[in-house]
Amino acid sequence: MEREIIVKKRDAVATRAAILAAAHQRFLRESYDGVGLRDIAGDAGVDVALISRYFGGKEGLFREVVADKEKPKIFREPKSAAELPDFFARLVVEDADEDLEKRMEMFVIMLRSASSPKAGEVIRDLVHLDVLGPLTELIGGDQSEFRATMLLSILMGIGVLRTIMMVDGFTGGDEAIADCTERFRCLFAAALTC
After folding, report:
1. Exposed end of the chain (fewer CB within 10 Å): N or C?
2. For the chain, what is the domain count?
3. Within a domain: 114
């Protein structure tokens, strides 16, 4: 009897993972409103009812797809506003290709679906909870939310240049990388003070 329970749990984990992977690919290619649960279920090779069972429906599934489960609190790593320029500069320059690609896929998914009222609400909630909220709190003072938005705008713009437009001048020897890091640190510091 115990063995059957363990096997079912493993199947549930694998099924949930297959649904998430299929949804990720669908939302990467199509907008939230253009994706149907039957399409996702078909791609995952499961019954459509399992999506509601595991995720509560399309909105819950979308939320799971765009939530960063691997690094959910990355923007809570800096402990003071003074650490932010260095943190963002290192994030830009030292960003591993794999991490950058994953974040840009999330950006594409969010951008593609942002015009949907339901998906837009999910995106706004997650961006505020995971990024803007922690940064605003850390920055504090007058116009802290505006400054947090400025930092995020710069960071996203750099990400778009690197992954979507393939403009990447952030390579070279140690000296070139150090120079690039310092220039980005200055840029992020300026965004905090304007």
Report:
1. N
2. 2
3. yes
